[in-house]
Write a structure and sequence with these properties.
There is one protein chain. By secondary structure, this protein is an alpha/beta fold. The protein has 11 helices and 18 strands. Strands 3, 5, 6, 9, 10, 17 and 18 form a 7-stranded mixed beta sheet that branches. Strands 13-12-11-14-15-16 form a 6-stranded parallel beta sheet, with helices on both faces.
């Protein structure tokens, strides 16, 4: 199939120094390699990871300058000579995991995110805060034609990440899951995935605006940690038998909530760490962990199958993304709101302006 016409230049948000800010400027459109596709990005969600990347918060080497973004949804406009499974005009998404080797022991068992040779969109390779982005054909996620691209963009990271976390928790239908940071982009999706998977969500966050959102998305209980006299007791009391939730998804960008989870989980409960506060450490009382047989585990982004499954939840109408669409040029404003903790749901960038 013939390549579509592609311009020589495009608009992009480029981080040129540690700490930012991103610079909105014109740059050349990249060319796809032999096993890659060039995607005309139409929408890109903004993740808290993008803010961490700009600030250099994590002990991971990143390229500099770089273009952030890893929730990009668009249309394939060019492909490399070796690409056979993706056609020009296909709707696809570019995720955090841009590529992996597909041959190491981790890739062979479906743990592609753990590949030692993985490339990360918006971190080690340029991401989706640009009008045209390159992705490995083996790793882009197909998006059905009946899905709205602006609405599905955050599912490619926020959705996949919390869905994977719920799978890692091993929670069963009718069991309780505490979602800490429930009113944000990931948390708002975690509530919905929990409900769709038959789990009972207890949402924890701050402010009545987030409480209204969490309840509307299916949370059985909302606990405002800024007004509660005893958050742990309130979480336990939200369960039918008063023993506490079976698992806790910790999505918060602060360290303290990770330490509190052992106080309200029931015995054999599972703490799933998803948020990654800069420089944070996890502490837990060893006595409780042993005697109550608690489990603490990390959950990274999902693999290719997890992404396909998360997209199917969206296509089936089980997931809606609370989001606000703004122009690509407004990325700095989004980062300011994110740093202040003011964002409810998810911001999505429209790359057309």
């Amino acid at each position: 199939m013939a390549q579509l016409e592609v311009p020589a230049e495009q608009w992009a948000q480029v981080v040129e120094q540690n700490g930012g800010p991103p610079i909105y400027k014109k740059i050349p459109v990249p060319n796809p390699g032999s096993d890659e596709v060039l995607v005309h990005i139409l929408y890109s969600g903004v993740c808290h990871t993008d803010l961490h990347a700009m600030k250099g918060d994590w002990p991971l080497k990143r390229k500099m300058p770089f273009i952030g973004g890893h929730e990009g949804a668009g249309v394939v406009v060019a492909r490399g000579d070796l690409v056979q499974n993706i056609n020009i005009g296909d709707r696809v998404g570019i995720k955090w995991l841009n590529s992996s080797c597909l041959s190491c022991s981790f890739c062979m068992q479906g743990d592609e995110p753990l590949c030692p040779h993985a490339l990360l969109s918006g971190y080690t390779v340029d991401g989706t805060f640009q009008q045209y982005a390159v992705g490995k054909a083996s790793h882009v996620t197909r998006i059905p034609k009946d899905c709205d691209l602006a609405a599905i963009a955050p599912v490619l990271c926020a959705g996949v990440t919390v869905y994977k976390g719920l799978k890692e928790s091993s929670a069963r239908p009718a069991e309780y899951v505490a979602i800490v940071g429930a009113g944000g982009g990931l948390g708002s999706l975690a509530i919905q995935f929990s409900k769709a998977m038959g789990l009972r969500a207890i949402a924890i966050d701050r402010g009545e605006e987030k409480g209204t959102l969490c309840r509307s998305l299916g949370a059985e209980t909302y606990i405002d940690y800024t007004t509660s006299n005893d958050v742990a007791a309130d979480i336990k009391n939200a369960t039918r038998d008063g023993l506490g939730p079976h698992c806790a998804l910790i999505i918060a960008p602060q360290e303290e909530p990770f330490h509190h989870a052992t106080r309200y989980l029931r015995s054999r409960g599972v703490i799933v760490c998803i948020g990654m506060p800069s420089g944070a450490y996890l502490k837990a009382p060893i006595f409780d962990v042993v005697v109550r047989m608690l489990s603490i585990k990390g959950s990274y982004v999902g693999n290719r199958l997890d992404a396909d499954e998360a997209v199917e939840f969206f296509r089936a109408g089980l997931i809606k993304v609370p989001s606000k669409v703004v122009p690509l040029s407004k990325l700095s404003d989004v980062f300011e709101s994110m740093a202040a903790g003011e964002i409810v749901g998810r911001y999505v960038l429209n790359t057309a302006n």
